[in-house]
Amino acid sequence: MTVSHILGYPRIGAQRELKKATEAYWQGECSREALEQTGRDLRFRHWQAQQAAGLDLVSVGDFAFYDQVLNVSVLLGAVPERFQAAREIAAGDIDLDTTFRMARGRAPSGEPAAACEMTKYFDTNYHYLVPELHEGQRFTLASNRLFDEVDEALTAGFTPKVTLTGPLTWLWLGKSPSGELDRLTLLDSVLDVYCEVLARLATQGVEWVQLDEPALVQDLPLAWQQAFERAYHRLQSAPVKLMVASYFGGLGDNLSVATRLPVDGLHIDAVCAPQQVDSVIDRLSPHQVLSVGVVDGRNIWRADLAALRERLLPLKVRLGKRLWLAPSCSLLHVPVDLAQETDLDEALVSWLAFARQKLDEVVCLARLIDNRATDLDEQRLKAATQALDERRESGRIHRPAVGARVAAITAEDSQRHAPYAERAVAQRRALNLPLLPTTTIGSFPQTPAIRAARRAFKAGEISQPDYEARMRSDIAYAVERQEALGLDVLVHGEAERNDMVEYFGEQLDGFAFTRFGWVQSYGSRCVKPPIIFGDVTRPDAMTVPWSTYAQTLTDKPMKGMLTGPVTILQWSFVRDDQPRDTTCRQIALALRDEVQDLERAGIRIIQIDEPALREGLPLRQQEWQDYLDWAVACFRLTASVVDDSTQIHTHMCYSEFNDIIGAIAALDADVITIETSRSNMELLDAFQDFAYPNEMGPGVYDIHTPNIPDVAWMVDLLEKALEKIPAERLWVNPDCGLKTRTWAEVEPALANMVEAAQQVRQRY
Ligand code: GLN
Ligand code: ZN
Asked: What is the 3-state secondary structure (H, E, C) of 43-68?
């Protein structure tokens, strides 16, 4: 019999119960016991869903009040000193509030301290808390939560498989604040605790433990490859069965490392890397289980059960009962339950599967290849085939004109007429800006009144003309304030935008929006990515009326504001029936039309935001160039339609620019603004070393805090910037948009910024 299981289930709850409970707890509006009860209820419900679907094992250890990587740090007693948890560590029982303080700097009890760093988990939009490591660190079993959850599952009659981040991936994700540490020197002590954990799980009656080692799909230094072998030889003595789980890509050059590990099972991602399955099987030892991840754990499309059955049957012949089936990775990355989407049209619903539906898909496949399919399974198989046939042929997906337009893209379409140096002259003449021009990144405060108006409009309580009039008055206010502040290049303030991707997606054809399709981003924060299901077109101009209205209110240049094609792609669920770059080109063409319309309407500066360019980088360095090539091409396709005298800006938030500086230069934006204030302009080194040729606005105002930066501080930052960028190419602006701030914070901060620019200008 083929065992069916999952690598993890979303923990937020179908109604985001976990978000609501944790936030209420942090606010002091819900007791610790009530919070714990919410956790127990959710776990129970999720195990029940897995069992009811027919999975052979339920997943325990995937629950976390904040983050599963943080949970492992707590399990290992890896709590930095500033959280003053020595007594809790010694007692082997770290308090939940300590965990929350590590995550957010504060909790209902305990002294606030600087939170741990947070960053994206591999190439997903999920953020984990970076384990803080230091030389000579010792680890000790410091939490009982995992064991309690195992007991909970066992008492309720479930058969648990425990899932934990593996020791190597945990170290791989960790960082020493001082930077200088060979993390592998800590491995032995980490393994001591893992051994203890595994032994204890065994005494509880756990048979299988899944250790997540997605580091195996990245480029690993030799020492790390060897460490895998060493680590798992030690863990081998544990009295449980171990399954090492890889996902988000292929094992590549770690193939023999992974297949030689002395463990009882291996999980591989057959969605991202279908071609690796046979070579893994060839190398597997005869007793090892292979869990094949065939249902996409990162996207929302319904699985093609018939095709998968065909693919799996030969594997079944080869592996017999050593074949297990699962989604490709934890279902953490998809929304919870499609059944709630009562507003989506029927056809679209029939093409989708969320976490709850993916359980059924895995189970159904297992039964199909075992020849023990029930009537229900046969029905599911038929329904899937029918839905997929419809999807393949649907006129809502395929618009021949779009395909023809993409096919007709020429190299010239992605090429501005003149090189930057010539464009700069034309732009200087057209725009007549002072030296060190001041501007902002786009959004102004999203006030409670703006949000209330949007809610009322969506609820049908106010009419469209009414809503638009309100937005116009907010735009007028933002323009008036900017004029009073003396900024040089103004923005309309983005009052009308709920979100920088959703706003565009809602106006483009080919996009759909769910009501409850929430996915955890970090802690209690969830995002609801749009679904790109079809060829993308732009029925009408999206931003032109707002920008032109704003331009009528001022003689200063009004900057048009768009989200770039790569960012829209990156922050959406994308089609699986065509390559990502094709979808990106379609979006780029739609945005190109918008750029052209803005220019025709008299907008002479257009900003195309691409904060997600860096995060789209593939996990393997070998694939970077290909990605960067098409990503850059898509940006340029969007931008290059304008005259030389129209100035194109782009904005990126904080990024590791070193890796992609060549690509950033290749964007050939006339001006790039980036987040630098917290790094004290050090990020500019990458640009300087590269001799970045175009204009730059390194942020001088950290918009992530409510603090008002003073003039001297910003003058100092500008002077640092001037050591790296000549004055003719330097802009003055905040780090990012101001939508999360209040006017009371923004006005004095921008007044100081303008003053700082004026002071520095006088020296030239
Ligand atoms: N134009 C956007 C804003 O100002 C940019 C946001 C971002 O970079 N994340 O809000
Ligand atoms: Zn930004």
From this structure: HHHHHHHHHHHCCCCEEECCCCCCCH
Q: Which residues contact 435 (CB under 8 A, 6 or more apart)?
A: 727, 728, 761, 764
pLDDT at residue 302 greater than cutoff 90? yes
Same domain, 725 and 632: yes
Q: Is 312 in the same domain as 182?
A: yes
Tens of pLDDT along 469-490?
999 999 999 999 999 999 999 9
Q: What is the pLDDT of residue 283?
A: 97
Residues 227 and 322 in one domain: yes
Determine the pLDDT at residue 571.
97
611 Cβ inside 6 Å of ligand 1: yes
Q: Is 350 marked within a binding site?
A: no
* Residues having C-beta closer than 5 Å to ion ligand 2: 653, 736
Q: What letter represents residue 106's amino acid?
A: R
Nearest-CA residue for ligand 1 atom 4 is: 737
**Which range of residues forms the domain containing residue 684?**
418-762
Percent of the chain with pLDDT over 70: 100
pLDDT above 90 (res 677): no
494 is in an annotated binding site: yes
Q: Flag whether pLDDT at 679 surpasses 90.
A: no
Q: Is 538 annotated as a binding residue?
A: no
Using the predicted structure, report yes or no on whether residue 374 has a pLDDT greater than 90.
yes
Q: Quote the radius of gyration of the chain (alpha carbons, Å).
A: 27
The candidate with the shortest Cα–Cα distance to 493, out of 530, 444, 433, 448, is: 444
Domain count, the chain: 2
Pocket test of ligand 1: the residue of 439, 501, 571, 651 to mutate, having most ligand atoms within 8 Å of its CB, is 651
What are the pLDDT digits (tens) for 93-111? Answer: 999 999 999 999 999 999 9
What is the tens place of the pLDDT at every residue in 379-409? 999 999 999 999 999 999 999 999 999 999 9
**How far, in Å, from the CA of 749 to the mean position of ligand 1?**
18
> Do 547 and 560 form a contact (C-beta atoms < 8 A)?
yes
At residue 680 the predicted structure's pLDDT band, cuts being 50, 70 and 90, is confident
Q: Is residue 272 part of a domain?
A: yes
Q: Whose CA is nearest to atom 3 of ligand 1?
A: 737
Q: Which of 494, 500, 558, 563 to mutate to test the pocket of ligand 1 (most atoms within 8 A of CB)?
A: 500
Question: Which of 222, 227, 223, 219 has its CA nearest to residue 249?
Answer: 219
Residues 702, 750: one domain?
A: yes
Closest CA to 209 of 9, 59, 45: 59
* Nearest partner of 709 among 756, 672, 763, 741, judged by Cα: 756
Same domain, yes or no, for 335 and 198? yes
Cα–Cα distance measured from residue 131 to residue 72, given in angstroms and rounded to the nearest whole number: 9
My answer on whether 209 and 350 are in the same domain is yes
Q: Is 468 annotated as a binding residue?
A: no
Nearest-angstrom CA–CA distance, 4 and 10: 17
Q: Are 12 and 521 in contact (CB under 8 A)?
A: no
Q: What ligand is nearest to the CA atom of residue 697?
A: 2
417 given a catalytic annotation: no
Is 699 close to ligand 1, i.e. is its CB under 6 Å away?
A: no
46, with CB counted inside 10 A (0-12, 13-18, 19+), is buried
Q: What predicted TM-score, i.e. pTM, was given to this entire model?
A: 0.95
Closest-lying ligand to the alpha carbon of 735?
A: 2
Predicted pLDDT of residue 342: 93
Any domain includes 622: yes
- Interacting residues of 6 by C-beta distance below 8 A, sequence separation 6+: 50, 55, 59, 326, 327, 330, 331, 358, 359, 362
CATH number of the domain enclosing 217 = 3.20.20.210
Co-location of 313 and 451 in the same domain: no
ipTM: 0.99
Q: Which residues contact 116 (CB under 8 A, 6 or more apart)?
A: 70, 80, 102, 103, 129, 130, 132
Is there an atom of ligand 1 within 6 Å of 737 CB?
A: yes
- Which pLDDT score, from 0 to 100, does residue 678 have? 79
* Mutation pick for ligand 1 pocket among 125, 440, 441 (CB with most ligand atoms within 8 Å): 441
